Amino acid sequence: QKYSKRLLEYFVLANYDFDSYTKQIYLTAEFLDTENKVKLIIHNAEELSNIWLPTWSKENGQDDIIWYSADKREDGTWTCIIDVLPEESYIVHVYTGESSPEMFLAQYVF
């Protein structure tokens, strides 16, 4: 399998500024032992109230888009497990907002 047991290097997503507090957030992706699953971890985003991750394969545009919600952990990181096919490349957008995806933060491609 192309992705099994491989850890991606962190990728800087965006800087955000809320009430004059600026942080640089970044994402790591861990390919799980479970076939076709990737765990996305978003770091330095503890002040955010919600994170959404629309994800789709690069082939054929957004015809297979799935919107995932990330879960906040006690350490302030956010996590989400997504389904992937080893032979595909994927695009992940990161959004935040109070009750819906209102602000685009960045794009991640793997």
Secondary structure layout:
Layout: E1 11-18, E2 21-31, E3 37-43, E4 51-57, E5 66-69, E6 71-72, E7 78-83, E8 90-96, E9 103-109
Antiparallel strand pairs: 1-2, 2-3, 3-7, 4-5, 4-8, 6-7, 8-9
- Pattern of helices and strands: EEEEEEEEE
Largest sheet: 5 strands, antiparallel
Given helix and strand content, the structural type is mainly beta
Please report the total strand number as a whole number: 9
Strand order of the largest sheet: 1-2-3-7-6
Strand content: over 45%
Return the average pLDDT rounded to an integer. 80
State Rg. Answer: 14 Å
Low-pLDDT stretches: 1-13
The N- and C-terminal alpha carbons lie at a distance of 15 Å
* Global morphology: globular
Count of individual helical segments: 0
User: Helix amount, in percent?
Assistant: under 10%
Describe the structure.
By secondary structure, this protein is mainly β. It is built from no helices and nine strands. It has a five-stranded antiparallel β-sheet, with no helix packed on it. A hairpin with a 6-residue loop joins β8 and β9. The chain is globular. The chain starts with 10 loop residues before the first strand and ends with a strand. The N terminus is likely disordered.
Short description:
It contains no helices and nine strands. With 110 residues, it is an all-beta fold.
